[in-house]
Structure formats: C-alpha cells, structure tokens
From TrEMBL:
GO terms for cellular component: cytoplasm; membrane. This is EXS domain-containing protein. PANTHER family: PROTEIN ERD1 HOMOLOG 2, XENOTROPIC AND POLYTROPIC RETROVIRUS RECEPTOR 1-RELATED. Residues 1-184 form the EXS domain. It comes from Chlorella variabilis (Green alga). It is a multi-pass membrane protein. The lineage of its organism: Eukaryota, Viridiplantae, Chlorophyta, core chlorophytes, Trebouxiophyceae.
Length: 184
C-alpha cells in the first residue's frame, strides 16, 4: 500500500467499526444506555483515522496549519474519553465523578477505590498511570508520519497489547465482584 492508499485507514477503522456496531446492537437488544456512550467512545477514533489518511491528499501547508491541529484535538479527545471509560466504567474506579468535591486543597483528586481491593492500592495507581501513557502512545500509532517507521509501529502495537493485558486484571476483579454480589 502506498501512503495515499485508503486500505490502511480502512484496516485501522475496522475494529472500531465492529465494536461500535456491537455497542449499538447491545443497546437495541437491552436498552442499556451506557452502551450508547461506549459506542460514542469508539466513534471518536474515526476522525483521528480519517484526518491521518487525508494528510496524503492535501497540500503540506493545509495539513500543517489546518488539519494537523484538528488531528491533535481529535487524538486527544479519543485518548481522554477512552481513558475515562477505562477507569470509571470498565474498572469501576470513581475518580472523575468526584473531582468537584471530597478533597479540599488537592490539586489532583485521589481515585476512590473500593473498600475491599483484590490488589494493593499502588497497583491500581500504576495501572491508571500506565493506561494513560499507553493510550497516548496508541494514538501516536495512528499518526500518519509513522507509516515509514515499521519498527516504531511494531513496538507501539506491543505496548497496546501490554496495556490490554494489564487492563485484564482489574476487569476480571470487577466481574468477580458482580458475580459475588448476586450470590446469597
């Protein structure tokens, strides 16, 4: 594929499109409104991918002065929303929801973890910090200038696999708590 090919962006967009459709389908089947917000999360990847693809079809000045700032904004929105969803929804750690109150004088509020934790508190803090850093790295992978740097892309893909591997521990803990809550 050449840089101007739309095969690369289509390949990048396919997993997001599949998850978007899955979320909408679950919403239609169950009426669970959080699925619409989860679908919105997946839809925020499309502007990043589209703007990356457009770089090779516009003049350099148009990209640099107009589209690159839009790409950066879309990439930040995608990473921030995905990070929020990971922490608040998937891991069920209340952090963003309590930012307006609880800790007077704190510059950054401390995440509110459950009373009973499967792992030690520093592990959750590490997971949140590494998740944010690795989410930003994944967004960087979508950057159009990386198409020539296959080694960098390979390591970013490995980092994303590692991020998802770490994510697994808290996600399993959340599901175990849900199962235990339904047992007498």
């Amino acid at each position: 594929c050449s840089d101007a090919s739309f095969i690369i962006p289509l390949g990048l967009a396919a997993p997001y499109a599949w998850r978007l459709v899955q979320c909408i389908r679950v919403y239609l089947d169950t009426g669970a409104r959080p699925q619409l917000f989860n679908a919105l999360k997946y839809s925020t990847a499309f502007p990043v991918i589209l703007l990356s693809a457009v770089k090779y079809h516009v003049a350099h000045e148009v990209w640099r002065h107009t589209l690159k700032p839009l790409w950066l904004g879309a990439a930040f929105l995608n990473s921030a929303y995905s990070f929020y969803w990971d922490v608040e929804r998937d891991w069920e750690i209340s952090w963003f929801g309590q930012m307006g109150g609880a800790q007077r004088g704190a510059v950054v509020p401390s995440p509110v973890l459950r009373g009973q934790l499967l792992y030690r508190r520093p592990f959750y803090l590490y997971l949140m910090a590494s998740n944010l850093a690795l989410r930003l790295a994944w967004t960087y992978k979508l950057s159009p200038h990386l198409r020539e740097h296959h080694v960098v892309v390979f390591f970013i893909v490995l980092a994303e696999a590692f991020r998802r591997f770490q994510w697994l521990f808290v996600r399993v803990e959340v599901e175990l708590r849900k199962i235990q809550a339904h047992r007498p």
